[in-house]
Amino acid sequence: MDSPAAPPVPRPAAPVRPEVAITTTAPVKRERRWSVAALCIVLAVVAGLGAAAAVTSASDRTKVIAIARDVPAGQALTAADLRVAEVSADAALSPVPASQKAPLVGRRPAVDLRQGGLLTASQLAGGSGLGDDKQQVGVQVKRGQAPAGTLAPGDKVLAVTTPAQGEQSSGKASAEAPPSTVSAVVVTVSRPDASGNVVVNLAVAVTDGPLLATRASQGRIAIVREPRS
Hints:
By secondary structure, the protein is an alpha+beta fold. It is 24% helix and 21% strand. The chain is built from four helices and seven strands, in the order αββαββαββαβ.
């Protein structure tokens, strides 16, 4: 007699594997490429704007006259005193254009000019700019009869009459009498000669010009500088 068949044994269920999302690197690469492209576009735009600004700034610059070294008021300008500079155009400034450099040689400023500054038309006056409405007298001053190395154009001075050779004071009143003086303004001062003498060009009132010239021809003038303050 046949034995009954054994029942089938169920197979154990396989463990459930978690679902893993399938990813690829393609989207990441595409995103990076777009970022790099956008960055390049931004840099190109910025560079273009910078170049445009540089061109605009360069086109707004103009050539003008600048001061190459200090020049005192009243001293004639030379080519070495002037140089050409480029500055940005500004309506608030009115420097002399570089094209007018040649006619400036020989002109005399009405104020002191400082190295590095821009020359403006207001700094230049007709004539010397010092005492143009007065008479001018050249006075040769001997060593010791003027402040050494301190006189400058524009200084207010007193031209003091010194005693004539052999002239003697008579009496106490004469000795204490104030000396005769003429108020003047220094226009130019020459370099000292071998003896230390200088020629000072003085601007004086029209009533004092002949008197000062007479005393200067006799060598009877000493210069006293007034306080600059």
